[in-house]
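Same chain as my last thread, 200 residues:
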Amino acid sequence: MNVGRKIVFFDIDGTLLDDQKQLPPSTVEAVRRLKQSGVYVAIATGRAPFMFEHVRKQLGIDSFVSFNGQYVVFEGDVLYKQPLSREKVRALTEDARKNGHPLVFMDAEKMRASIGDHPHIHVSMASLKFAHPPVDPLYYENKDIYQALLFCRAEEEEPYVRNYPEFRFVRWHDVSTDVLPAGGLEGGRHPHDDRKARDR
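reply #2:
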């Protein structure tokens, strides 16, 4: 990295994308001009990298801060990563299974569900414009998981909060809460803040 060059970070919805989730020609031109003038252009978001890959490709952006700072890439190289504890994810998965609460595991490239065809997963993922993820109940065993989605109602969440101080639980849907590292960005953007419309 050239320390003498400036870097500009962009959010996604309402910044790079318009209200129709489209990439306006004016945005493409603005990014092109910034890069042409020698400015590093990057994206900063709470989303997983695979959720905004199409935007990065269209704009030719290879630097980003994702998962609220847990996975950072500069010019295509991973500079920093902070996955969830595999041991704790394993324990959480077992407790959730006993309680009948499914999970979705997210790494930098994709997401997988602990069970298939669950209504809570369907409705909450639809609000993000995603389909029910494919099933792989042991996905966390061989992948670095940066965020999980726990599907339960607010009144069912308290035991998880009490038993897993290593995690921070952030509710974003009536039937889903994010599972993040407790040491994450407390005052940072919520992983789903980029998405304005919520279908609850």
